[in-house]
Automatic annotation (TrEMBL), chains A, B, C, D:
It is found in: Cytoplasm. This is ATP-dependent 6-phosphofructokinase. The keyword Transcription does not apply. One of its GO terms (cellular component) is 6-phosphofructokinase complex. It comes from Oribacterium sinus F0268. One of its GO terms (molecular function) is metal ion binding. Its cofactor is Mg(2+).
Length: 360, 360, 360, 360
């Protein structure tokens, strides 16, 4: 069999671990297999740039961060548009696929990338998706690889801030990745012992945030730690239309490089507290994958190989009840999993006294 | 309300995180609560040794390994026997419970400890169990806290061995905790990229193990890594009666401090390879809990508090499909969850070419 | 004997480890000793706020980040001015010292704090200084505690960025603490494998920086990593008077929250490359101390106790040729150790091809 | 120029970092250079097995544990003996060196390996040594690379044991690498907060050890941690002749796999305490190098390249007063640096109350 593979979108940990799982299992299950690794995501498929991957290429990469194939962000919208030279990208991908006589294409990607994967599936290619993203925002799976490794990095940041915060007596804001979905912030906030957790799905009231800080101060706590997602918005902002919100955020960005800096200024003005901002940024995508992700990625990879052997295509591998299963790409493409404000984990966090800034 | 709490059995990470969850949530949900922490597990309950725990006692312990209450191994069998002074331990525990006018007792424990918890429940005490153990071998829950933190430590050991093994060209054996259940070895073995994984549930054939090593050597690999559980047994041993096996293991122990040393000698004799043994031992119970465990423990603690508020007793908190729920102590006491040789994860490991030593 | 102790200035790792060394050794060497821990640095000494520290207070804090006594930044200049109520701070400190009949005061502090320590020494108090700072910029000692732990955190950030940078093909800027001195940036840059290292002591030419990036790109490297100290300045800026520079930096701050963002914009404009900024910020002061710092802090603490026993005051403990010795506070107060552009380590970095942005 | 390079002896962290330093600097300083990497240490030089190393071979290996060239232990004694086929190894090495028309050979090695390096130097080859070993026992340099990374691993083990020990109330013994020299045990013991540190250079009295444990127990401590070097010996053993000692240790080895197990039994018998043994073993040689080692190794590598350019041979790179310098191989070959019982660091440890088991 002839199998193509690519990694697409923002990179994360365990991309290599997943490819190792796919590659080792394919060589093991099929014996006779040719694997083509496309460079820099869909770009490689469009422009016919790849390298043949031998059995040995999949050795020694289990713990490596990043992706040995490179990746690129190629938004779904962009995929459907011709390139600068007028090339039809979808047709180009189909052409490369057929030229190499591929039996299937394995795509490691998040939301946008899997939308493209579904498109290719609809266009007649045999496609298998693997759920990649630090955001864990993919519909149809309990987990995505990369998530717990990013939680680790973000939690480490909060841990470090914790000791320094306790020494000085300040408010610290840690900005965690997540433009639309707050799961990473929620988990890292819980794991790091944040006092206030602000996520896009639960608009916050600045007064509730400041009240929580004041209460902690009044009860003798020397510091407060706020974990805020990049895309957190206030209650007022949540009432705007999409267009109005976009405009407002663009305005804000002129004064503050990100949401954390804006919040810091508001808290300083309202409470007089000294506020410090930390932005772990892209470190959340890097470093070695944690054991959870390594096991999960390895399992996903093995099952992807099994699906290829079974010639079961048009699906994404998925975790359900601790077992790896599949869901049709068509069922999940373009859908998001988000923080449910009424979910158990949010309620549990509130039981401990953690504020989401939504108290009346 | 008046709540007792204790940590029992082998210690693990996230015991303090769980108690923090219970304590913070109790103070938060009930306002008026008295919490009594019994020292060194059931011993404290038997001999009336405890300390009252204030709200502040639960602050700053989220990331601390160990248990601030101490623990002890008090096997179920021992609990039922009178102590050296003829004291009936069960009656003593009931006496302490009543003397302190407790409304309930929260037990953080593993298999044996929850058996005792169930006994106390049957004796009329209000008991809530929290699933603690590095082995993840508790029936009735998808996960126990401590497991992923122990996986982290064991995986780190394999990671370190990996680089040194690659430099020298040897066989390395890493012995991982688990006398009856191999889940910890299975997960750490997968996460660390072990070539051979030996667990109690899948008896191994020494010839299959050596064959795998020889195959790797023949294909140019400079080294092989074996992850073996403390309680792994050979196919021959698996055919013995329980009594015969016990006798044989006692004999073995005279010559080898543990199973890894025995296996090392066998491999050296059969293959001529240079073999090295590493025993991370009790480090697997120590260090800071990983984020997974911190989140999970916090959730368990919050739900324990909620159950207390609801006066729902005689249950163990449990993870099912990512939600925290409860199972009756009576349903799970004394039952083990083990590695299922036919489970998805074992099959997936085999797809990658990992040997469990059971090949024909 | 009666000994006071305080931690002053920006916090860092190993403050607790050092106090543990002082406290354990004092109890051990003197048997009969009373130790008074002043709260929040000099503030506690000024306003007579302290707690008596028992032998057990020094147990279990070796690995804890932060400081159990709290700290505050009280600049030397501020120390010499009366407080809001007209209180003479220096007199107040002397008063507290005498009221408690202290035999000596141990100050864990950096540059400013040791200047104050020297002042108190000149005023007749018995003072011993311990060299604390993540910047390693204290004159008169080869090393300060906190430095290598901060290097670890900053290096981890660069490590994480490395894997993500390699996947995407971008320029990444990591901003590392250090307003006046670039030692932390230099060491973390070397340890993390940065391609360009910019420190205050070696003004950079933006064209040299961009040239290095272009060269790397031309030779097939997919990414470049810049480690920049908070206080790095360009060659043009280095020619300004102190007053002019201050004004310019204030202007810059209006457009960019910090130097890294400014550099990012310049590089983007000049090279067209996609640039990302990461600011580990206060995480560099937090987390557990690395073994180097623990050993060093323990040694410093023991020798401080020995000096107290010998009644040798007016000195700072110092590392010279791997031995702990002392230097007079008067000799080092107010002096800085900086990156010497002609030192071995800078030359060695350049031999590897690392750019400091000062190439002609 | 034509440069050979090899890594010899027990592997450790930062071997790759050092080679990266050498390789990058050579390409940078000389432009025109050919580098030959010999496989598996001196074996590769003897049997003419090597690979040519391009500039790109030195990229991306800064943080990798192990050695990309492989290594082997080839004792000095063995080097001087003919091999199984009667080959004169020294002549074979000279032959390979000349056949490849090398200008010099860079050897990354410890004591034994540098003795061989010196022999080759005496035989007329141009040799440069780099001080590699986790033991830091090389004469003529303040530090060796690998040491602080091994300290990190060993300290992590003690840290993990600390939390579990505190929970249970036991004596824990951690066996740390070091057959002849106890520096690694001393530093890890100090960094991990061990209560008792036993090293080969300070023979211990089992009664002093047990007395210390009893004292801690009496003063309310729940546990004691012993850090023992593999080669630690008792006072009685220290009085034996070398031959007698060898015989006794061989006897001991029949009953106990290592010194820690023997000590455990003695303590159990004498104190009745429950004792647990942990043997981190080869993990101490593995994993990523810590920043200290990365910076140090990079500097060593750069200076090795500079020496080659200057054609200064017959030397080992060495750290003296934070600068990299050189010492003649002839001056240091075969000499050991050990723990000086009268050194500052040992005295400081004793000031804190740490026992070395040598108290009268």
């Amino acid at each position: 069999m002839r199998v193509g593979i690519l990694t697409s979108g923002g990179d994360c940990q365990a991309l290599n671990a997943t490819m190792r799982g796919v590659g080792k299992s394919l060589y093991n299950l099929l014996g006779d297999v040719e694997i083509y690794g496309f460079l820099d995501g869909y770009k490689g498929l469009i422009y016919d740039e790849y390298r043949k991957m031998e059995r040995s290429d999949f050795s020694g990469i289990l713990t490596e961060g990043g992706t040995i194939l490179g990746t690129s962000r190629t938004p779904f919208k962009q995929i459907r548009e011709p390139d600068a030279n007028g090339l039809d990208k979808v047709e180009a991908m189909k052409h490369t696929y057929r030229k190499l006589r591929l039996d299937c294409l394995v795509v490691l990607g998040g939301n946008g990338s899997l939308k493209t994967a579904n498109l290719l599936s609809e266009e007649g290619l045999n496609v298998i998706g693997c759920p990649k993203t630090i955001d864990n925002d993919l519909y149809g799976t309990d987990m995505t690889f990369g998530f717990y490794s990013a939680v680790q990095v973000a939690t480490n940041a909060i841990d470090c801030i914790h000791t320094t915060a306790a020494s000085h007596g300040r408010v610290f804001i840690v900005e965690i990745m997540g433009h639309k979905v707050g799961l990473l912030t929620l988990y890292a906030g819980l794991a790091g012992g944040a006092d206030i957790i602000l996520v896009p799905e639960i608009p916050y009231d600045i007064n509730a945030v400041c009240k929580k800080i004041a209460e902690r101060h009044a009860s003798g706590s020397r510091f407060s730690i706020v974990a805020i997602a990049e895309g957190a918005i206030s209650k007022d902002e949540s009432k705007l239309t999409k267009k109005e919100l976009k405009k407002k955020l663009a305005e804000d960005r002129k004064n503050h490089p990100s949401v954390a800096y804006k919040l810091a200024k508001e808290i300083e003005e309202k409470t007089g507290a000294e506020v410090r901002v930390t932005v772990p940024g892209h470190t959340q995508r890097g470093g070695q994958p944690v054991p959870y992700d390594r096991v999960f990625a390895t399992r996903i990879g093995a099952e992807a190989a099994r699906m290829i052997k079974k010639e079961k295509y048009g699906v994404m591998l998925s975790l359900k009840n601790n077992e790896i299963t599949t869901v049709p790409l068509a069922d999940i493409a373009g859908k998001l999993k988000t923080v449910d404000p009424d979910s158990g984990i949010v309620k549990e966090a509130k039981m401990l006294g953690i504020s989401f800034g939504d108290e009346e």
